[in-house]
Amino acid sequence: MKERAIDSPTAISPPGGHPHAGGPHVEIARRPKRVAILQSNYIPWKGYFDVINMVDEFILFDDMQYTRRDWRNRNKIKTKDGLQWLTIPVEVKGKYHQRIRDTVVSDTNWNVTHWRTIAHSYVRAPGFAEFREPLEELYRTTRERFLSLINYRFLTVLCALLSIPTRITWSSDYLITSGKTDRLVDLCKQAGAGEYLTGPAAGAYLDESLFAREGIRLIYMDYSKYLEYPQLYPPFEHGVSIVDLLLNVGREARRYLKSA
Predict the structure, then answer these.
(1) In the predicted model, is pLDDT for residue 26 greater than 90?
(2) Element (H, E) at 40
(3) What is the pTM of this model?
């Protein structure tokens, strides 16, 4: 069965106790370790960060093949002229089967261009003054050549700004097996997971019986019913980078994450 509920720790009492008695007699029953496994994205949308915030360990699956015109190296922001892509240029010529973690940046000046575009587009946004310094510092000091390292650095900094403490690891930290579902199940087992959180589209290709066989509860993320927030340039658009949320509402950004 596909489950969508997000569990909370449940208070239980020892024999003879009362669940609300307080003091040393009250214990906490914790849910099994929850893991998510996704390919790294560049400054992804809020739903991606909700997934990170809903798990105990978030594994970047960068052993996967790099796909062009995807979210690995680009994302959208809002400008006065409409949606605009911010794309990190990468080397792809003749590298049709390269892994994400082997993908190299082809223009080392991309960070300067991206920050200039963001600053120009959001300088009048209510949260710009609040987050300008950490974001500008992030762009200014990014020198990594590999796309995976860039994405990892941005994800960790953005998680810190959103007060998301989840541990972020790499699939390369584990042994990778073959098979579309088998390798995900095996990664969960190696990570000690009892629950696996994945996107709704995964239901079309996952073999759920393999998770059930290993006693791993499969949970599908629900991306519907997000609240709209005050956005600088209407009409409202949900599917833009988390940067848009941070710069439009500042420290109130967590209120618009479903996991918060």
Answers:
(1) no
(2) none
(3) 0.88
